[in-house]
Structure formats: structure tokens, C-alpha cells
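[Discussion] Sanity-checking designs against the backbone

I'm trying to build intuition for which residues belong where. Below is a C-alpha cell string of 128 positions. I'd appreciate it if someone posts a full sequence so I can compare it with mine line by line.
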């Protein structure tokens, strides 16, 4: 579905998610594997596998598997269950990210008003 609107915030393209059953089953199975490896990692930490060289390697491998499995879960979820939406964004000029107002595009001097602040610091009752 596309719209021809070009104002800021209009939806330019909207493709609904596929929501396949196979992806849902795969996410559930990957979640079970995730829980098993998180449990294995927690058991290894509690039982002191990290004290010897081989156990430390097993803990690192279990942690790597946990994060790779989590990456696959998130990838499947994003691809199968989130819609593809493109909105019209406001095009910004280069200086807009750097300055607040257009008249400030040349910047300000760091010494503007420095002499007044020195006078106020030296003479506390300057304006009274």
C-alpha cells in the first residue's frame, strides 16, 4: 500500500507482516534453546567452571551461543512479525543539526561577554 502524500509524517509505503506459523514455531524452539543455554551458563558460573582453563572456554562458548541464538530470535521476529513502514521525513539542511536558529549558522564568539563576567566576578555589587 502506497500513498502519494508528501507532507511530513505521511506513510509512504506500508507492507503488512507475513506472520507465518513456521516462524512462530521456530521462535518458540529457539527460545527453549536460549533458556537451556542460559541455565547451563548460570550453572557453570555457580559451580566454578571459570576457575580452570577448559571450563572458562566452555563458559565463553555457552555465552556466545546465548547471544547468537538471541540474534536469530530477534531477526526472525523483525522479519516475520513487524510491518515494513516507510514514512515521509523532513529533509534537513546540514547546518540545522549544528545550530538552533538560522541566524546562528555562523556561530558565536567564545569571548562575547567575557569582560562583563570578569567585572561581575571582581565587583560583586557591579549593577547595584
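Best answer:
Here's mine. Compare freely.
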Amino acid at each position: 500500500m502506497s500513498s502519494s502524500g508528501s507532507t511530513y509524517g505521511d506513510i509512504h509505503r506500508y507492507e503488512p507482516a507475513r506472520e507465518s506459523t513456521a516462524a512462530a514455531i521456530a521462535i518458540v524452539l529457539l527460545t527453549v534453546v536460549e533458556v537451556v543455554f542460559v541455565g547451563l551458563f548460570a550453572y557453570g558460573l555457580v559451580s566454578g567452571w571459570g576457575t580452570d582453563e577448559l571450563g572458562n572456554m566452555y563458559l565463553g562458548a555457552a555465552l556466545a551461543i546465548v547471544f547468537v541464538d538471541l540474534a536469530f530470535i530477534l531477526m526472525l521476529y523483525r522479519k516475520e512479525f513487524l510491518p515494513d513502514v516507510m514514512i515521509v521525513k523532513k529533509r534537513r539542511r546540514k547546518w540545522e543539526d549544528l545550530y538552533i536558529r538560522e541566524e546562528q549558522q555562523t556561530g558565536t564568539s567564545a569571548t562575547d561577554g567575557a569582560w562583563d563576567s570578569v567585572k561581575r566576578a571582581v565587583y560583586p555589587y557591579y549593577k547595584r
